[in-house]
Amino acid sequence: MIAKIGRSSNLYGTLSYNNLKIEKENAEILLMNKMIETVDGKYTVSQLAKSFEPYLLANRNTEKHTLHISLNPDPKDKVSDEEYWEIAQHYMAEMGYGGQPFVVFKHTDIDRSHIHIVSVCVDGDGRKISDKFERMRSMDICRDLEKKYGLTTAIDKVGKSNDKIFRPVDYRAGNVKSQIASVVRHLPNYYQYQTLGEYNALLSLFNITTEKIEGELQGKMRKGLLYIPLNEKGERAGHPLKASLFGKNAGLPALELQFAKNKASLKDHPAKAKLKYAVNNSLKSTSSEDFFKKDLGEQKIDTVVRRNETGRIYGITFIDHLSRTVWNGSRLGKEFSANTFNEHWNNNIKQNKESASIKSKILTPDDENLPMDEPHHLFGILNNNDRNMDGLVEALGSLIPETHGDDQEELDFAGNMRKKKKRRRNR
């Protein structure tokens, strides 16, 4: 089970979001704690809000006073209403909110039932309830609840699913937006790249590319970024999607800040010298592009080659999965520019045993001698000892495939709350 904890200054907006689900018959009120009840059991947003008003009046200084928590069991777990009731009470008590007014909504609008809890984080005396080590405490409580109710353990699920996280986008499988999101939201946490070209080279391993867009809006030039799914041949295979759909960190301004930060940290990075050595050795020991890529691939280095319509190479990028760094060839040195590889591969016509053997082979997916077409399982990032597994569960949240599907309305609601907060700051 995964818990998501959110805070905002918009109590009415949070209650309205859940109440709208009820109106659409996609939710119901499951439990009320220290709330003013009605005779018929039906509630408007205003009626629900009245239970929280005394607490908010007692403390006008806490800006983000509204607490919005969702508890998400695995889709395969069958949780009864009574169990949800007990889980919500136990969770809130252990988190320090047992004496607070709170309302529990059960949502049933996606392929998994889950509950949302709305409360406030200031008590009746106007004191803010401590949120120290909140996420760590929340995860410990979730592990206890999993054991008590026999629920699927989220950490085990991550271990079983690590081959499905960060997989290349399959445009035929549908839900392209969610597939792209599971990549672009997390890549900046694991890899360093200094230009949009290097970022695109990394994304190409996942059948994604980006495209800059520029235009005039209200008399000002605006820049934006589109994310585009690709097929196995690197061709466009779907509609472009705005970067804003994947969060502000996927947009051009945030990426440009990331490029500058990475440029500084990579200036004297030891990975550069090691990569130059590996590329130089492979270039000398192979005479075909396929075997060059295969040789580097065995060293956990992917090679992305860009060609124009005539087949001439105009760019080459190396992705070192061990150091998690991305380098354009020219950044490594002039000797690794596109021209070098054009001369070495396109103008070197001699047929050696390597190239002849590749041409004569019947290519099969299981042939161990084939050059690597798929990215390295880098996607084994989740097994790294330097990462805390609990932290990854919390960070990945509902992006874990087959564990917790995205509720798009929920994501949109959270995004709108952030936008409203930003607009108020800018006034």
Automatic annotation (TrEMBL):
Residues 404-427 are annotated as: Disordered. Residues 41-151 form the MobA/VirD2-like nuclease domain. Residues 417-427 have a biased composition (Basic residues). This is Conjugal transfer protein MobB. It comes from Epilithonimonas ginsengisoli. The gene is mobB.
